[in-house]
Each structure stands twice: as C-alpha cells, then as structure tokens.
Amino acid sequence: MRRFARLCEALAATTKKTEKVRLAGDYLRSLPVEDAACAALFFTGRPFPRIKALVLGVGASLVWQALARLAKPEPGVLEAVYRKHGDLGAMTEEVLEGKQAAEALSLENVRAAFERLAARRGASQKLPELEALLRRACRLEAKYIVKIITGDLRIGLKESLVEEAIAHAFDRALPEVERANMLTGDIGATLRLAAAGRLDAAELRLFNPIGFMLASPAESAEEAMEYFPEGAFVEDKYDGIRAQAHKRGREARLFSRTLDEVKEFPELLAPLEALPGEFILDGEIVGWRGDRALPFTEFQTRLGRRQSEAQRELWPGFAINDADVPVVYVVFDLLFCDGKLLLDAPLSERRRRLETLLADVVSGGAGQRPEARGGSKLQLARTSLCHTGGDLQLAFERALARGNEGVMAKAPDSPYASGRRGRYWLKLKRPMATLDVVVTAVECGHGKRRGLLSDYTFSVRVPGEDRLVTIGKAYSGLTDAEILELTEHFKQHTVDERGFSRRVEPTIVIEVAFNNIQRSDRHESGYALRFPRIVRLRSDKPVSEIDTLDRVKQLYHGSLITGGA
Ligand code: AMP
Q1: Which atom of ligand 1 is nearest to the CA of 214?
Q2: Distance from the CA of 520 to the center of ligand 1, in angstroms?
Q3: Are 93 and 154 members of one domain?
Q4: 401 shares its domain with 463
C-alpha cells in the first residue's frame, strides 16, 4: 500500500497525461497480477468494482470521527485543517503528522478491510473498523485510503487513463482494453484478462449493466443538423429516469445511470419478462397518463423509498411512494439480442430489430404513433427522420406540445458508444426557467477551489413577510475572479461560522438555472432545485426584488417553460 500511495503522489505531481499513463502502467506491470488488479481498481478511486453492488456506507462524518479518535486534536483544529485543504485525504495527511504504520499494509489487506466495512451495519459498527484500518496505516497510506473511501483520488487518473495504463503495462491495444472493461464492468478483471492475453474472452454478462451512451447539448435546431449531413433520427426527449433493461429466461431487471438496480417499478418487469428471448434495452421510465408523459415533478413521487445511496445523489430530496402515478418504459435502443452484441451495429439496424422485438406489444414504428396496445407498459420512442434545421425545429415544437422536454437527434449510422458523450446524439431542450435568489450561507470549495468560499446556499423571499427561506445550493457557474472577489466579500459579511459553513448577510443576488423543482425537506422552503447552477451575478437587483416562494410554487405546479424576471 505504501508504494501505491507514493505512486499516487507522483501521479498527482505530473500534469502530463502520457507521463501519468507511463508511471501507472510501469507500476502495474511490476506487481503480481492480483495486486495489480487491486491497484488498478484503487486508481479509479473505487473501493469495489463498478459491477459489484457493494457500498462502503462510510461518509465524511465517519472519517471525521475516526480521525478525531486517532489524532485527538485540540478543539477546532480539524475544522481549520479541513478548511485549509478542502479535502479529507489531505486533511488526514496533515492531522496524522508523524504517524507510523503499525504493520506493513498490503493492497490486499486494504481490499479486505473495505469488504469488512461494507458488511458492517450502521456508524457504530463501521467506526471501529475504519479506525482500526487507519491505525494500521502510515500517514501517507491513510491519506489515500481516505481518498478511496470518499471516492475522490484527485490524481488525475480517470478510469479511461487506467485503461490506457493497462494497455501500456501489458502491451495491448487500447480499444481492446476499453471494450473488455465496458463488458466486464470490472477494471481488475480487465487487467487480469490483459495480463493473460485474453481480452477477447471478455463477455457481456446479462444483469451486469454497461455504461449508458450520452448526448451532447445543441443550442439550436440549425446547429444540430450541421452534425447530420445525411439526416437524423429524431426522438422525443422524455423526462423521467434513464434505465437499462436486462432480460433472460423468466427474469428481467432494470438498472439506472449509476448502474444500480432500479427497484421502484416492479410493474414494468412482467411485460419485459413476457417478451421473447434474451436482450438488453435502453430507454426512459416516465410517468404516463392517457396518451402523454407526465411532468417530472409528478413522476418523481414514485422515486424514493427504495433508492440506493447513489440514486439519492442523483435525485436528492424527499419523495414519497405513490402507486397512483402510472409509469411506462419508453424504449429507444437495443444493445444485445439473443446472444448478439449490437453495440457496433448502426442505430438504424438496432432500431429495426427493436421494432421487431416489440412488435407484439406496441403499435409504433418510425413516424407512427407509438402508443401501447392494450395499455402496455412498454412503448417505443417516437421517431422521425429529419433532414433540415426546419424539420428538426418542427419536431422539437411538437415534442414540447406533447409535454416532453425536447428532442434527441441521433446519427442513423452510429454505433452505441457505451459510457461516452459524443456528437452521435445531440439533445435540444426547452429553455430553462431561472430564479433570482440571494446567497445566505457559504462554504469552502474543494480541490482547485479549496480556501475559497465557492459553494453557495441560496434563498428566496416569503412574500409579505420579512423572511428568506433556503431552496438550494450551487457550486458552479462563476468565474475564478468572481469567486475570489466574493470570498473577500463573504468573509466581511459573515454572521456566524459553524463547522464548514458560514451564515452570511443576504447581499449577493444570483440568477440560478436548474432542471426542475422538487419537494424537499432539506430546505426551509420545502422545495429544492434539481441540478442548480449559477447563470450570473445580479448586482443590478436588490434583495427586495428577488423571486418569491410563490413563484417557486407556480413553477413547481406548472410546467417550466420560459426564463425568469
Ligand atoms: P440530460 O439528462 O439533459 O443530459 O439528457 C440526457 C438524458 O435524456 C438521457 O440520459 C436520457 O435519460 C434522457 N432521454 C429522454 N429521452 C431520450 C431519448 N429518446 N433518447 C436518449 N435519451 C433520452
């Protein structure tokens, strides 16, 4: 583990990608295969392979408690050190100054300790386990153990670079490593295959979800069509949650974008199980009533109880289970069918096969109404072929009129680029609503922004009362210069300081964009913005004129169409 930690330091110290790949690759080659598999996994900042449904369940506060027990710092020291670094790993290194290892800790020891941590239930069981692990480590090892636990190594080695390092270490072609890693969903297993020269033996395993293909945004229909000289398949963009369906024999399961199993919609499984053969589908689960999709705000009441940690990150906030909201699975892609992997087949062929597979349950085809027959819970995404910006604009307006979020334009001859965001798929969305809000609390940022007050909790006004209520937190959107200036401003306008956070005088008005509004018990307003980001500073606007809770309610109840004040 010590060599691994030292190597991480060396990786963090170089900004050159080729140098990182060479260093990591040489290191992996020098290790016995099982250790190398472990190191490759840790390089990705994960304690467990992507496909394993294991979670450590160790959050920042548990790490904090373990460090407090180990280092026994004076009151306030941990807070001060954290504020300086904005990173728990770096904080660990500093507060454990002078700490020696109790024993030589191997990568395998750390892996086994992670498994034990995952198996323990609740903070009271996990804390002693975590403390014991950190006690065995030296200061530098502890730093990287904490970084893996918090899922953020910050050594600039994304999974794609680890794939490159494996290709370099064992002299294999990068596309073969990437493909094996996509299929196995396990970078350690990929390394073992690469070491044995058996990358071609990697097989897709049903019920191991694979990375989703992602879309890039387009600003306008005209711009989007420039990427599709031969025309584009245009589908409605449904606003629900993305899901990959796997089916074999009498069993079907759904997986989310975080590759966790989605368990909230058991009613979708029987119709999937009734389809013939084995397959993997890609699509969107949406709320549905009559002949149209429901707004996300209504659909989201079905999300909640059975969410995993990771899913909760994606859909923060409170949600109740409401079986009254009917859902359907709108399918738009076919990745695997009856033993044949279709990722490299053109979209036009995948779509054709998909229409055949679903022929008995839906009446849709290209350009036709895709409504389900007999109230089926499975639907085929509506699609049409567009050749011009005008065609696409029309399709976009029709999609909005049907209550959908916009359209997706897809290259008919494109492969399914698993886990990648490229130009084969472009999304064109309705303009977003924005809110003018005031910053009421601030926190230090992380990484490059440590020491800067860059994370802002913001509030709206309660009309008729002299009161502000929080509604969200945003981290992104301002320039470095603006953040620097605001940091000074907030330091001088702090009302009180508690742990990580400072309450500040409500003086800075910002405009925030967001994807949606949801009910939430996290914020005083009872609502939370989904994916908020700062559009700009509104120094022209006094706090007395910011948006009100009433406008939030209006936006929540109506569908969000146009911009703010
Ligand atoms: P966004 O979340 O805005 O980045 O948009 C991408 C998401 O749109 C995907 O991850 C899907 O969940 C969703 N989506 C809705 N309809 C479609 C569609 N027809 N094709 C692909 N993705 C879709």
Answers
A1: 10
A2: 24
A3: yes
A4: no
In a domain, 270, yes or no: yes
For the question of residue 237 being annotated catalytic, the response is yes
Q: Which residue's alpha carbon is nearest to atom 11 within ligand 1?
A: 242
| Pair 72, 41 in one domain | yes
What span, in angstroms and rounded, lies between the C-alpha atoms of 448 and 556? 35
Regarding whether 508 and 533 lie in a shared domain, the answer is yes
Specify if 342 maps to a domain: yes
For residue 240, the ligand 1 atom closest to its alpha carbon is 12
> Which range of residues forms the domain containing residue 33?
2-160
Q: CATH no. for residue 346?
A: 3.30.470.30
CATH number of the domain that 33 lies in? 1.10.3260.10
Residue of minimum CA distance from atom 10 in ligand 1: 242
Residue 335: both structure tokens together: 């990745």
Per-residue pLDDT of the chain (565 residues; tens, 9 = 90+): 999 999 999 999 998 999 999 999 999 999 999 999 999 999 999 999 977 778 898 888 899 999 999 999 888 888 888 888 878 899 999 999 887 877 889 999 999 999 999 999 989 999 999 999 999 999 999 999 999 998 878 887 888 999 999 999 999 999 999 999 999 989 999 999 999 999 999 988 899 999 899 999 898 999 999 999 999 999 999 999 999 999 999 999 999 988 889 999 999 999 999 999 999 999 999 999 988 999 887 887 787 644 444 444 444 444 444 457 899 999 999 999 999 999 999 999 999 999 999 998 875 443 444 444 446 899 999 899 999 999 999 999 999 999 898 999 999 999 999 988 889 999 999 877 789 999 999 998 877 788 889 999 999 999 888 799 999 999 878 888 889 999 999 998 888 888 778 999 999 999 999 878 888 888 999 999 988 989 888 887 888 889 999 999 988 876 544 333 3
Q: Which of 399, 429, 459 is the last residue of a domain?
A: 429
Ligand 1 centre distance from Cα of residue 214 (Å):
8
Q: How far is the CA of 178 from the centre of ligand 1 (A)?
A: 24
For 38-64, letters b (16+ CB in 10 Å) and e give bbbbbbbbbbbbbbeeeebbbeeebbb
Extract the runs of DSSP E, i.e. beta strands, from 393-452.
Answer: 406-410, 421-429, 434-444
Number of structural domains (the chain) is 3
Taking the centre of ligand 1 as the mean of its atom positions, its distance from the CA of residue 238, in whole angstroms, is 7
Last residue of a domain, one of 402, 429, 456: 429
HSE-up of 196 (CA within 13 Å, CB side)? Answer: 15
Q: Are residues 44 and 96 in the same domain?
A: yes
> How far does residue 284's CA lie from ligand 1's centre (Å)?
7
Beta strands 467-474 and 516-519: pairing type? unpaired
> Does residue 427 line the site of ligand 1, with CB under 6 A?
yes
Contacts of residue 354, defined as CB under 8 A and 6 or more positions apart, other chains included, come to 281, 331, 332, 333, 334, 380
Which atom of ligand 1 is closest in space to residue 515's alpha carbon?
3
Q: Which of 20, 147, 237, 429 is catalytic?
A: 237
- Residue 142 inside a domain? The answer is yes
Q: Which of 408, 428, 530 to mutate to test the pocket of ligand 1 (most atoms within 8 A of CB)?
A: 408
Residue 123 lies in a domain: yes
360 Cβ contact partners less than 8 Å away, ≥ 6 residues apart: none
Q: How far is CA 231 from the centre of its chain?
A: 31
Q: Is the CB of 333 within 6 Å of ligand 1?
A: no
Residue owning tokens 């450590």: 56
Q: Is 323 helix (H, G, I), strand (E, B) or coil?
A: coil
